Amino acid sequence: MGKDPYPYRILVIEDNPGDYLLIQDYLDEHILSPKIKNVGTFRDALMLLSDPEATFDIILLDLSLPDKSSEELINEIVKISKKVPIIALTGYSELAFAVKSLSLGLSDYLVKEELSPIILYKSIVYNIERNRYIKKIRSSEKKYMDLFQMSPLPMWVYDSETLKFLDVNESAVRHYGYSVEEFTSMSIKDIRPKEDMPDLEKALEISRGKKTGFYYQGVFRHVLKNGEIIYVDIQSNVIKFNERDAKIVLANDITDRIIHTKTIEVQNEKLKEVAWLQSHIVRAPLSRIMGLLNVLSSGKLNEIEKKQYLGYAIDSANELDSIVRDVVSKSQQIHLDPKKNEL
Amino acid sequence: MSFRLLLIDDDEIFIMMSKFMIKESDFHPSPLSFEDGLAAADFLKNNYQPNDRYVIFLDINMPKMDGWEFLESIKEFANPSNTFVFMVSSSTDDEDVAKACKNQFVLKFMSKPILTDTLIQLKEMPELKQLFKDGK
């Protein structure tokens, strides 16, 4: 097997010159031209890592340095390592601690007494690769977090069991008036009018026990912090959130749309009334006048009859007049301003 | 065999005018008039003769029994082959027109007023032609 041609940039934090020489030898065994830097104290490590020019692919860290060791050393190095993976080099005596150190942010540990060129090489390659995946996952997590946080529509996640808000986005905070802290101390019942509870129960029943990905859509009324009631088109999906059964919700405020539709419905009702009046009431006196005029124009009536028929025609004309006035006043009640129509 | 004409309308002026037009057009010498559907239905039920011919001008909106109810009630005894109804209304409502056309007794939906010329035209309808040949 030929040597790995990638010029790994390796920082070895090791105060024992013998150990360092050994590591150098081992590295040369499988890597064609490693770029190795060695420091022997935490102070020097701090100086080197503070330099923005200094970048490494991996850090090999001896857990006992003259000026710092153990947990304190690990915490400090992790802090300044700029997310470069760190492999601890440790003796048998420190083995128990080395295992625990993984939870402090180290990528791996190697026991010095058992170190060999192939073990060292494998650990370096593996941890660099692993670190790259972790970075990728974090950035994709952040991307999805942004999609949630930056969504122009209010969104939240709530616990399917307790109904508590687990997370809300910025738009929900803006729209509803509650802070994130207020939201997460509330349940989704707290944003409903009391009289709408049965509707909520019904909707919850539909998605009870459903698996991840179950989609639900419906229109509900919500109450803002200032007491205002809004209509929202709710879309929700069942998800797992921090190991809890939860639902992610998208709430689209459709209050304006609904008020607009109601205004048009009221107008329609009034227009229908006008049309009915026109068809049934207006035509009655009109048809009478038409008939009477037809009789009058026949020339077959005597003077007394003529007077009688003219009297009927005048009565009908008056009736027609009052009906038309009524139609006009009904039409004037149809306002385009939604607030003036009784909803 | 005789031919009887019934005018059923709660509007007295309309009845008066219609009688004038019926005389003018020689449609019938002695039309009978009724102020509501119930009075007309009672009369027809008591006097109906299968060999007679009936032409009925029927208003829709009336107290006690409206035009539609009248048509329902005469179904029991009257026969569409000798009972011809003209539905008469001041309304021009499409729903009323459609409903009238579906009824077995109704020959035509007419909107008020009924004028002399209209009546002269009606006498030429195939269903009614016979009445005027026989009657004179």
From TrEMBL, chain A:
Domain of life the protein comes from: Bacteria
InterPro entries: CheY-like_superfamily, HisK_dim/P_dom, HisK_dim/P_sf, PAS, PAS-like_dom_sf, PAS_fold_3, Sig_transdc_resp-reg_receiver, WalR-like
Single GO MF annotation: transcription cis-regulatory region binding
Presence of the UniProt keyword Transcription regulation in the record: yes
Start and end residues of each PAS domain: 140-205
Top-tier EC class: transferase
Secretion signal, residue range per the UniProt entry: none
Catalytic activity reported: ATP + protein L-histidine = ADP + protein N-phospho-L-histidine
4-aspartylphosphate modified-residue sites: D62
Boundaries of every Response regulatory domain copy: 9-127
GO biological process: regulation of DNA-templated transcription
Keywords in alphabetical order: DNA-binding, Phosphoprotein, Transcription, Transcription regulation, Two-component regulatory system
Pfam families in UniProt: PAS_3, Response_reg
A single Gene Ontology CC term: cytosol
EC number: 2.7.13.3
Keyword Thylakoid assigned: no
UniProt name for this protein: histidine kinase
Lineage: Bacteria, Pseudomonadati, Bacteroidota, Cytophagia, Cytophagales
From TrEMBL, chain B:
The keyword Lipoprotein is assigned to this record: no
BP-aspect Gene Ontology terms: phosphorelay signal transduction system
SMART domains: REC
Keywords, ordered alphabetically: Phosphoprotein
Domain Response regulatory: 4-127
Modified residues (4-aspartylphosphate): D59
Protein name in UniProt: Response regulator
